[in-house]
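Researcher: Good morning. I'm working through a list of sequences from a screen, and I'd like to move beyond sequence-only analysis. For each chain I'm collecting a predicted structure so we can compare shapes side by side. This is the next one on the list. No need for commentary yet; just the structure.
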Amino acid sequence: MRAFAKAAVLAAAVMIGAHSSAFSQATNAPPPVISSLGTPTPPHAHGTAIAGAIAANSKLVGVAPKVRLLAVRAFSGAGESAQSTTFNILKGIDWAAAKNARIINMSFAGPADPMLRQMLAIANGRGIVLIAAVGNAGPKSPPLYPGADAGVIGVTATDADDKLMPQANRGPQVAVAAPGVEILAAAPDGKYQITSGTSVAAAHVSGVAALLLATKPKLTPAQVRGNLVRSAHRVPGSRNEVGAGVVDALAVVNPGAK
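Model: Good morning. Structure tokens for this chain:
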């Protein structure tokens, strides 16, 4: 029997149990949730969509529906105004590491942060796979973090035709691409939503990484990255735009299938 990896989700507030039609309570109880802010917050559309893209297991099916999900409330606020602090993000990462998360999905982007960079280097050294959105600030934007930090797998978004999302950041920090345009996703209160962005693309890559670790649990973060990059299928665009190409879940877990 395969042991499925634990994946931690850092995004706006997420509550898995809030969407009964995406997460079957009979097979996947709500994951443990930490409020890094110390106070309860209602489910957030962004965080719920990210968690669902990874692990939904009912009417909607995520990439890795049997993954053990750890949901981290590191952000507060509603809609596009959700914000966090270095302290809250560091606290969430530390909590996820203490819970033995193998993957940390970071569906957020912002300026460089030396303290966060140091924490991520420690997590990476402990064998945690770090995956992050490269950001949606456009082709002229400077690099955004943590997607551009060393040891982090930066993910961009493509559409159903494998074309790059125009709003996506560009640069050498882009490792791979994944579907991230007009994605049907879970939303709070049993609803659904259509969402776009590198955040949901990063979630898809985190799901593929979880599938890989379920088959090869001893892989290091560098080896996981190498597998994702080597198995990606090339699509139009430069390396700074789409990285190695779009992730291919089948090729990742079964290299002979490519």
